[in-house]
């Protein structure tokens, strides 16, 4: 009966990121003892349980009596003073409603009591199958749900870890300065007529055709492009280089099967391009005046700021790598089955984020390939297992996140997006995102705890390790 399952508030377990939300035991609603219940717990497998619960007739009748009395007090029946309507008339008028409410109340009271007494925490909404509730008879119902598998979390204190140490080199500071210059570049009209060359800004009208049909996504008017910076498809750039202002040109480009515009993926596109204008990209000089744009007195201060920022980036990268290593070690230590409901929820989340990544850029969501689906399946298993292991350690060490810590994180996020805190928090509450945020913060605190207890040696990262870091799999990503 879906309406009964809906009445049981076990919390959402929708996942985001690693923070797969394992719902806490809901509020225990114990209006009476139900000491004479008969309970049978069937262990279907390591993650599934089935409860068979029998509530004695005496308790059923007590619940009926209470509800009938409540209805009698509030019912307004013509010919009778309020609260004086005969019980038989109340039963005939409201019988079905009384049975429904009594069933829901008994299930809620008894189910949570059984969960508490047997230390069972469902991770999904239970599937309830109640018999018909009748006065004078025992009431039987079953409940099936999934739980986190039982395992001993140990061996996470005193882990031997290695933290990479990298120094900021002068060429990295110069590269950062060059990027700042490029961001501040100006598009300056040409002093004399000439052809397009690398480094120019061009303004073009373009139309893309497949089998003679114009594709709306490939029709652009006065599109500004920077040529020669590997930001365009190489063959497209080659066809722009050498063109002159006012010139029109046709050429064909072949796109890969995974191209984001579905109609052009794996096909040849015939382009018609008109060059409207060419402008030269002029980079500013590195000077004290340039530094003042960033509210710094001179170039020395700008270089110092860049060096500090790069040091923080390297430290964050090293810390992230350290946490990845911890997760890998923990995953290798434990082997257990994963609840299918959590896997399904995590897959749905990753698929949703995969689609949102494209939609947020105004792109059509491509079909899910076997490779993408395989990645999502693997990431789901990793994310769920990580959350279960870290959740177990959090329980062992009594690690939790306070409401104040959640609010502080929300305030930082709200400030970053320039949204009032109250409005930002309401959005999280409305979309049931607070529990997921709390889970992620708890997991970070667990990793902080493991790092504090670990034996960490620092070493200089080799070139090979740096390249490996670039290819490190992000377990939160579906791509």
Brief sketch in words of this structure:
The protein has three domains: 23-146, Trigger factor ribosome-binding domain (Alpha-Beta Plaits); 160-166 and 296-470, Trigger factor, domain 2; 186-282, Chitinase A, domain 3, CATH 3.10.50.
Write up this protein:
There is one protein chain. The two termini are about 40 Å apart. A hairpin with an 8-residue loop joins strand 3 and strand 4 (about 140-145). Strands 6, 7, 8, 9, 10 and 11 form a six-stranded antiparallel sheet that branches. The chain has a four-stranded antiparallel sheet with strand order 1-2-4-3. The protein is an alpha+beta fold. It is built from 13 helices and twelve strands. Helix 2 (about 55-75) packs across helix 3 (about 85-115), helix 8 (about 340-360) crosses helix 9 and helix 9 (about 370-395) packs across helix 12. The longest helix has about 35 residues, at about 300-335.
């Amino acid at each position: 009966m879906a309406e009964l399952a809906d009445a049981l508030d076990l919390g959402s377990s929708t996942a985001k990121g690693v923070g797969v939300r394992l719902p806490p035991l809901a509020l225990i609603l114990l209006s009476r003892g139900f000491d004479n219940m008969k309970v049978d717990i069937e262990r279907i497998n390591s993650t599934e349980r089935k409860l068979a619960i029998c509530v004695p007739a005496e308790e059923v009748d007590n619940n009926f009596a209470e509800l009938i009395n409540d209805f009698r007090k509030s019912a307004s029946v013509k010919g009778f003073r309020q609260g004086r309507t005969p019980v038989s008339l109340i039963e005939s008028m409201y019988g079905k409603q009384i049975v429904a409410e009594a069933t829901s109340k008994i299930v809620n009271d008894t189910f949570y009591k059984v969960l508490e007494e047997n230390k069972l925490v469902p991770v999904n909404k239970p599937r309830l199958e109640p018999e018909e509730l009748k006065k004078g008879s025992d009431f039987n119902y079953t409940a099936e749900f999934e739980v986190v598998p039982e395992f001993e979390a140990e061996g996470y204190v005193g882990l031997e870890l290695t933290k990479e140490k990298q120094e900021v080199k002068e060429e990295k500071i110069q590269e950062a300065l060059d990027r700042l210059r490029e961001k501040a570049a100006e598009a300056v009209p040409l002093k004399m007529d000439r052809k397009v060359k690398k480094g120019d800004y061009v303004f073009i009208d373009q139309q893309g055709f497949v089998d003679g049909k114009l594709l709306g996504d490939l029709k652009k008017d006065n599109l500004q492009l920077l040529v020669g910076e590997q930001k365009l498809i190489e063959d497209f750039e080659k066809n722009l280089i050498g063109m002159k202002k006012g010139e029109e040109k046709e050429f064909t480009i072949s796109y890969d099967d995974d191209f984001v515009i579905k109609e052009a993926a794996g096909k040849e596109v015939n382009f018609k391009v008109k060059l409207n204008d060419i402008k030269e990209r002029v980079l500013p000089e590195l000077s004290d005046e340039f530094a003042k744009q960033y509210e710094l007195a001179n170039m020395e201060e700008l270089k110092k700021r860049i060096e500090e920022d790069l040091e923080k980036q390297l430290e964050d990268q090293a810390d992230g790598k350290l946490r990845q290593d911890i997760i890998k070690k923990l995953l290798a230590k434990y082997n257990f089955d994963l609840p299918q409901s959590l896997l399904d929820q995590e897959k749905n989340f990753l698929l949703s984020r995969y689609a949102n990544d494209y939609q947020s850029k105004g792109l059509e969501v491509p079909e899910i390939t076997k490779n993408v689906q395989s990645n999502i399946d693997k990431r789901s298993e990793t994310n769920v297992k990580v959350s279960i292991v870290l959740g177990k350690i959090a329980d062992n060490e009594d690690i939790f996140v306070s409401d104040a810590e959640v609010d502080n994180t929300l305030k930082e996020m709200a400030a970053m997006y320039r949204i009032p805190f109250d409005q930002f928090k309401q959005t999280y509450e409305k979309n049931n995102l607070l529990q997921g945020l709390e889970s992620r913060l708890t997991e970070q605190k667990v990793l902080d705890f493991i790092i504090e207890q670990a034996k960490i040696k620092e070493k200089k990262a080799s070139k090979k390790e740096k390249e490996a870091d670039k290819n490190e799999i992000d377990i939160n990503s579906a791509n």
